[in-house]
């Protein structure tokens, strides 16, 4: 996940690390399911090693509102903020017309046919993601291109 990819987790974490308000589009009641990459990889490996074919949802069925995620980020970030940077507040912006109201995968097929179920909690994945973003921000000199419905497109990453 990139710092500037415009997804809700990266937006909230990068905004919070910089001491900026967390931007919630709409009222924050829309739901999402968040999955840590290690669970995704384990699910894909189980799928490739299994005998069952057909469509599978390899996701985390835990469902959170966007506002719940913002509050979670607010609880985890403050101890990591530099002196003088205040706890982030939440600001609300108009939602986009194409934002889905609910996202929650049904993973029954994966559980039944390949014995897969996610192992990472959202809190654990969020802590790892925050640590990763802190390292990325340090490497980038603290600069992140703003994202969101009205923001400019993220600039390409520099090639190594």
Can you walk through the features of this model?
37% of the residues lie in helices and 8% in strands. Helix 1 crosses helix 5 (122-139). The strands form two sheets. Strands 1-4 form a two-stranded parallel sheet. A two-stranded antiparallel ribbon has the order 2-3. The model is unreliable at 145-157 (pLDDT under 50). The relative contact order is 0.26. The longest helix has 18 residues, at 122-139. The protein is mainly alpha-helical. The two termini are 18 Å apart. It has helices at residues 8-17, 37-49, 66-76, 108-114, 122-139, and strands spanning 22-25, 31-32, 64-65, 90-93. The chain is globular.
SSE order, one letter for each helix or strand: HEEHEHEHH
Q: What structural class do helix, strand and pairing data support?
A: mainly alpha
- Strand order of the biggest β-sheet: 1-4
Instruction: Work out the helix count.
Output: 5
**What low-confidence regions span 5 or more consecutive residues with pLDDT below 50?**
145-157
State the separation between the terminal residues, measured CA to CA: 18 Å
> Biggest sheet, open or closed, and with what strands and sense?
2 strands, parallel
Q: How helical, in percent, are the residues?
A: 25-40%
Mean of pLDDT: 84
Instruction: Give the radius of gyration.
Output: 17 Å
Per the principal axes of the C-alpha atoms, what is the gross shape?
globular
Report the strand count: 4
Strand content: 5-15%
